[in-house]
């Protein structure tokens, strides 16, 4: 009896198998627990994530990947066996342990826009609360550590704000990264299409010396955003003071925006050459990263 009591207190051997665990090596089903409309065609999806009471090798692997920088998840449409990579805008785990199950519960948030021809986006938007979706990850997208750069210049469009938001949240919460500055130029079609506007503006207000956000919209009227596109003059002004080797420009958004600003990232590995406005302004491959 004493041995069984020890196993109960100090191990998970007597507990049910913990499901819905992050796993970078295989696809795992996760339950959709919440859908929140953000704009007319964009929704925040929240999936439940579980973690054993005592971390195992799998949790150490997951934490090691997340600690290395910006990360994403491969999400699969099991109906047609295709997948697409999405960057979570939020991930958290509770410290409260369900003693009966021997696990902790958390969540993983994604912001996804529905595209008429986007099979994965349509699949997710048709998913109902309570349904399960298969995912694999975390997957490291961009290595980053505290104080790696002096200044991050972020240029995002639409749901391309997801990796930027993940990084902004990470950097502003890290006391070891207090010297890093972040500037975000965020483009949307209209003011009603701006994703996470309130949260971004609050972060900028609370961290005015470290984080700033400029909203750019294609069409007005706009009460608190600049009407325009990320053209030569706008990006020249935005990246003023850029120091090669100390700063970096991060870009993420629709293909049309990428083509105009930095050049489209090729399918597969590699970044491709810097093109568009950034090339005309003299930026080199080492200065720019495309998500």
From TrEMBL:
<protein>
    <submittedName>
        <fullName>Uncharacterized protein</fullName>
    </submittedName>
</protein>
């Amino acid at each position: 009896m004493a041995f069984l009591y020890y196993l109960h207190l100090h191990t998970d051997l007597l507990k049910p198998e913990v499901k819905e665990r992050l796993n970078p090596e295989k696809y795992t089903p996760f339950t959709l627990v919440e859908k929140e409309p953000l704009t007319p065609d964009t929704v925040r999806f929240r999936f439940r994530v579980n973690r054993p009471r005592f971390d195992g090798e799998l949790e150490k692997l997951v934490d090691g990947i997340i600690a290395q920088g910006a990360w994403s998840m491969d999400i699969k449409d099991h109906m047609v066996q295709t997948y697409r990579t999405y960057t979570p805008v939020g991930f958290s785990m509770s410290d409260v342990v369900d003693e009966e199950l021997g696990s902790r519960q958390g969540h993983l948030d994604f912001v996804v826009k529905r595209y008429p021809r986007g099979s994965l986006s349509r699949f997710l938007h048709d998913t109902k609360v309570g349904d399960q979706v298969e995912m694999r990850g975390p997957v490291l997208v961009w290595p980053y550590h505290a104080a790696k750069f002096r200044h991050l210049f972020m240029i995002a469009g639409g749901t391309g704000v997801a990796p930027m938001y993940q990084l902004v949240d990470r950097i502003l919460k890290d006391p070891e990264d207090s010297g890093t500055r972040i500037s975000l130029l965020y483009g949307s079609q209209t003011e009603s299409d701006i994703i996470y506007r309130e949260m971004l503006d609050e972060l900028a207000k609370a961290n005015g010396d470290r984080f700033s956000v400029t909203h750019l919209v294609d069409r007005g009227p706009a009460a608190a955003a600049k009407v325009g596109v990320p053209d030569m003059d706008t990006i020249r002004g935005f990246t003023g003071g850029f120091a090669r080797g100390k700063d970096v420009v991060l870009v993420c958004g629709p293909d049309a925006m990428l083509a105009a600003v930095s050049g489209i990232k090729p399918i597969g590995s590699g970044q491709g050459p810097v093109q568009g406005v950034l090339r005309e302004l003299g930026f080199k491959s080492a200065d720019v990263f495309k998500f």
